[in-house]
């Protein structure tokens, strides 16, 4: 096999040069030839290259009417010193899809047609896209890296219509399932049918666990549902006492789990920070 560059060992070309390129420049390099595409498509290269990129929040918004809807995915670079025009960078524009979950730069997308729903995974940095046909009968509740195996996994729950109408396909059980991205195996049942309420709620990934704030409209009390992505099991935490129960959002700020909630007049925002997570999780 010919070297990627004459007179330059592949070890240097890949791990000292290509690995340092920004995503746009890397995309151009992948188009040079098949050898360059192969060298920059390995799991090891993609993981290391991704680890060198800054962590940026994603914004997603919809453009167009209901019948012809496009999804714009935009990264927000909040570094100081950047002018407003440079803070927002377009990542992708997709037709007929909406963004469900994201983890480490990977996006889980879903078609807008509820009656004929299909899922896909997208890596916008490499413009790679693949359908996820094994999970069409499920709702995607969360996405995470399973650190013990290095696998990216999806936390799933059977579609509500199938559960409520007792129309579960043969072999599909009520309760949570786990699907390993890239696997040919069907989703694996792990139980926890009582976690059904997390299906449509936003979550945040923090220190190896997924967190959902569950307001009283879901379970008649304020709690935070926690999914340990290593043990793949649920527990719950007591949520702060809020001025408007059920009206709050979880996020991570300065390495701490944080919750924000507005008052009744929407004039002030209260922020709660969990300062001693290790003690709570013990």
From TrEMBL:
Domain F-box positions: 8-42
F-box associated beta-propeller type domain span: 86-279
UniProt-listed InterPro entries: F-box-assoc_dom_typ3, F-box-assoc_interact_dom, F-box-like_dom_sf, F-box_dom, SCF_F-box_component
Domain of life: Eukaryota
Pfam families referenced in this protein's UniProt entry, alphabetically: F-box-like, FBA_3
PANTHER family, per database record: BNACNNG10540D PROTEIN, F-BOX DOMAIN-CONTAINING PROTEIN
The name this protein goes by in its record: F-box domain-containing protein
Species of origin: Lolium multiflorum (Italian ryegrass)
């Amino acid at each position: 096999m010919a070297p990627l560059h004459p007179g330059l060992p592949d070890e240097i070309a890949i791990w000292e040069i290509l690995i340092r390129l920004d995503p746009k420049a890397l995309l151009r390099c992948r188009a040079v030839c098949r050898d360059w595409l192969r060298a920059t498509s390995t799991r090891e290269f993609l993981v290391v290259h991704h680890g060198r990129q800054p962590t940026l929040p994603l914004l997603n918004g919809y453009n167009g009417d209901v019948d012809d809807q496009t999804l714009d995915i935009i990264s927000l670079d909040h570094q100081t010193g950047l002018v407003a025009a440079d803070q927002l960078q377009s990542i992708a524009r997709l037709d007929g899809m909406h963004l469900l979950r994201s983890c480490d730069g990977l996006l889980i997308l879903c078609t807008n047609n509820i009656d004929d729903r299909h899922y896909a995974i997208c890596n916008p940095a490499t413009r790679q896209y693949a359908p996820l046909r094994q999970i069409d009968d499920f709702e995607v509740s969360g996405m995470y890296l399973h650190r013990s195996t290095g696998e990216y996994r999806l936390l799933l729950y059977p579609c509500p219509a199938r559960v409520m109408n007792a129309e579960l396909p043969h072999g599909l059980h009520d309760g949570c399932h786990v699907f390993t991205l890239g696997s040919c195996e069907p989703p694996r049942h792990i139980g926890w049918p009582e976690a059904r309420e997390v299906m449509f709620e936003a979550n945040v990934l923090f220190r190896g666990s997924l967190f959902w704030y569950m307001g009283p409209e879901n379970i008649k009390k304020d709690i935070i549902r926690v999914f340990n992505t290593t043990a793949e099991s649920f527990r719950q935490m007591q949520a702060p006492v809020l001025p408007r129960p059920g009206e709050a959002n979880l996020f991570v700020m300065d390495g701490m789990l944080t919750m924000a909630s507005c008052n009744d007049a929407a004039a002030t925002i209260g922020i709660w920070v969990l300062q001693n997570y290790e003690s709570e999780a013990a």
